[in-house]
Each structure stands twice: as C-alpha cells, then as structure tokens.
Amino acid sequence: MFVIPEFSALQDAISRVTEAEVLQALNADLPGMAGLAALLSPLAEPHLRAMAKRSAIITSQRFGKTIQVYAPLYLSSYCANRCAYCGFSADNVIDRRVLTFAEAENEAMILHQRGFSHLLLVSGEAPAKLGVDYLEELALRLRDRFAALSIEVQPLATEEYARLFRAGITSVAVYQETYDRAVYEQVHLGGPKADFDYRLESPARVAAAGMREVGIGALLGLSDWRAEGLALGLHLAWLRRHYWRTGLTVSFPRLRPAQGEFKPLHSVSERNLSQMIFALRIFDPDVGLYLSTREEARYRDGMIGLGPTRYSAGSCTAPGGYGQADAGVEQFEVGDNRSLAEVCAAIQQKGFDPVRKDWDAVFQAKGDRQQAA
Ligand code: SF4
C-alpha cells in the first residue's frame, strides 16, 4: 500500500536542499528522489532555463516530436461531494443534468467529426446518477468509433475497473487534488471523497485491474506546490515499482475560477508550474505529462516541446456543451478557447506533430482483457 509521508516532512526535505545538490540533479542521468526535491526547490529557480533545455531533450528522446491531443466529454454535473473549489460541488445550487446515452453519443460524434480519436469521459462523483453500469454501456457503444477511451470519475473498486477495461476503457485518471492531509480535510467538506486514504489507494486499484494507463495529479493552488511535486514523484515511483506494466501520466491542473468563488490558498505562477513540469520530466523520462486548456493559449504554446506530451483542445466543461451553446454551469472556466484545428496548427508551427491517434484496441492482446475477467 502506498503511504505518503507527512506533508511537512516533504517541505523539510525541500528546504534542506543545497546549491550543489541542484547542480548534481541537473547533471545526473536519473536524479532520484533527492534530485527531484532539489529541482523543485527555490534554489533551482535561477536554473529554470537549463531545466527547460534538459526537459526538452529528454521529452524529444522519449516521445519524438509529437503531442497527443484529446477532448474531455462531460457526462454529468451531479456530485455527492462538497469540494470547496469546484463548480459541481453539492453545496452549489445549480441546474444539474446527466446525459442520456443518446445525448452522450451525440456529443461524442460531434468530437469525432471535429477530428478527435481520444476521448476523456468526465463526470461529477455521484454513483447513484452515473455508476459503473452507465460507463460500461457507454464504453461499449463508443469503443469501435474511438481509438482510446479514458475516464475521470469517482474512484471505483478493482473489479469495477476490470469490468470497464473489458468494455473498452483503457485509461483512468484519479487525482489526489492535494497530498497535504490537513488541507485535504479543509477543502473536502463532505461526501465519499473526504476519505483521503481511499482516494490515495485508487491509482493502485486501477493498475491492479489491468488498465493500460493510470493518471495521477494535484490541483495546484490548494497547498505548497513544491511539496505536491515531491509527493507526485513518490507516488509515481511507487506505482512504477509495483505496476511496471502500466503506463503512467501526471496532470498539473491549476485552480480556475468556478461557481462558488473559491480563492486559491497558495499562488502558483506560470514559472512555478514550468519548474514543476520540468522537474517531473527530468525525474521520470517516460511519464506522460498533461497540459490542459485550464492554461492560456500563450503559455501552452510556449511549453510545446519542453515537457508536456498531451494537450486537450476545444474543451467544454459543461455536460452537453458541444452540441448546445448554453448547456449550463461549467465545472470551471477554460483558459484556452481555441478549436482543435487552431491548437493543432500551433503545435505544427513549432515543428511538432499533433497526434490524434496513437493507440488502437487491436493492439490490446486478447489475453489482457481475459486476464482482467
Ligand atoms: S471536484 Fe469532482 S468530486 Fe469534487 S465537487 Fe467537483 S466534480 Fe465533485
């Protein structure tokens, strides 16, 4: 079982870093956990340009000149949780909806026509409104029309993940939001998500179920981003050790304005975010790194080739929002409103290939699905 150290111990480790350790981490092939702490420290800030260069070289060696593009498809705004920072919190009085299968398929086909082959199915966490049966049925309906289907929904049991894998879901994201237990309790005011440990153990359940890929992440703005970065590194390393067959990804969502007017508890600048991304890339050359439309176009364009390998595009965070202009409350405001074509053009302008399809179900050994049975 993955156990996270006290958050203050992670902060202490970063505060003890020396200049010599930063230089050592920058020059090491694999800097390890001590090196990650060094690269996340304030002493590494003057070396940001060197970190960017190193991160870009590693990214190009491991991933080539490619960026995978995908779109989120929001299925439901119902949620049983009371997360203080989220527009879908059960505390917010908003019109809520869950898409019917026909509506969800319609949204998916709009995205398909726009050129997307990778879909991320997202919903609030309300199993009574949208549970495993719904996700299984929708995956079965969509699997032959898309190269890859991912989900970002409530944490599930291992056997439920295995069921969804057999139905065609290949990747699951479960973000811890914050590894700072005290802040976690402060902002998760009620609902099943208030259980820190169950959430922390979820990525291991995903991997144990045989999923091709699992995504972890921290919501930046809730606590000290440097210590969150070190916690993400520990979590990544633990998952690599125990589930070496499973692909791993990390997301770095920064808090965005949302219904409820929650103000970030810690500021995280674009420079801070860049340092975190470069540090994680140097620490783990193979991890997929997401940079979503939470960030502005200017920043996302500037980061092409420097570390992130996956960009969302043309995103709408309200259920039904692709087919309907006024679909209701969004989970949060998007920072980059460009279409898929515009994002792809920006990627190409930098000399990179936007990849709309890098996976197909035929690659999935039949035995893998049977093993998940
Ligand atoms: S962050 Fe997720 S779990 Fe929390 S209120 Fe929003 S949709 Fe629900």
List keywords for this structure.
373 residues, binds iron/sulfur cluster, single chain, alpha/beta, globular, 14 helices, TIM Barrel
Summarize it.
The protein has 373 residues and is of the alpha/beta class.
Descriptive report:
The structure is a single chain. With 373 residues, the protein is of the alpha/beta class. The chain has one domain: TIM Barrel. 41% of the residues lie in helices and 13% in strands. It contains 14 helices and nine strands. The chain has helices at residues 7-15, 19-27, 32-40, 48-63, 101-113, 132-142, 158-167, 181-187, 196-208, 225-242, 270-283, 297-303, 340-349, 366-371; strands at 66-76, 118-123, 148-152, 169-173, 213-217, 247-251, 288-291, 310-312, 353-355. The protein has an eight-stranded parallel β-barrel, surrounded by six helices. Helix 11 (270-283) links the parallel strand 6 (247-251) and strand 7 (288-291). Helix 1 (7-15) packs across helix 10 and helix 6 runs parallel beside helix 7. The longest helix is centred in the middle third of the chain and has 18 residues, at 225-242. The protein is globular. The mean pLDDT is 93. The chain binds iron/sulfur cluster (SF4). Iron/sulfur cluster (SF4) binds next to loops.
